[in-house]
């Protein structure tokens, strides 16, 4: 009887046993091009299955379909996720600032 595959096993079989980070973590890698050289075998870092492009929230990352998942080493995933969350926070701050500009348009010619 064949053992059922788990998500990580499926991702590793589909995309290989190397971290899929291509600089998303903000570091320059010395492996295959911009690819991290962490692998699932030997003494290398353990891998996890996560979206190819990190999302800002855990809910979005957990809801990613299997087709979007790639193997990541923990340090690259942590740094790529932090970078995406910082970008999302910057976008929200900019949107909030733009929405509030109209609140402070005071007609100086109006009688008080």
UniProtKB/TrEMBL annotation:
Annotated stretches, region: Disordered: 32-56
UniProt name for this protein: Uncharacterized protein
Source organism (scientific name): Kitasatospora cinereorecta
